[in-house]
Specification:
Structural class: mainly alpha
Radius of gyration: 24 Å
Strand order of the largest sheet: 1-2-3
Helix content: 55-70%
Largest sheet: 3 strands, antiparallel
Mean pLDDT: 92
Strand content: 5-15%
Distance between the termini: 51 Å
Order of helices and strands: EEEHHHHH
Shape: rod-shaped
Length: 125
Amino acid sequence: MANRFYDEKNGLWYEKQGDYYLPCLELPNEETEPIGIWGQWHKRYLKQNHRVLYMNLLTNGKLNSYLADIDERAEELFSRQVKQMAEQEGVTEQLKLENQMKWVARMNNIRSRATEIVNTDLIYT
């Protein structure tokens, strides 16, 4: 038998590896979009906690677009939360001009809380 052959029953090519014929499998091509930190965190979470979903997305060629969507939604939620909290707590440009250290401390606190909200609502669910 040849080193490579096509099986019409299942539509796969097989290649000889040592004494065995193994199917020539390839992942489907998918468009690669840049994935930010939120998408990378969610990918790590899926790999560790939802392996079946991760593998299904990977083998269907939808992982990258799924992670890019999660990343975009997370970034929008984060920005919206930071803006709303800053307005509610009176953290303004005027405060930044008057007392920079207080402004930095309050903005860091707001960003930390917004990060926790995004992690709870999108990344680790």
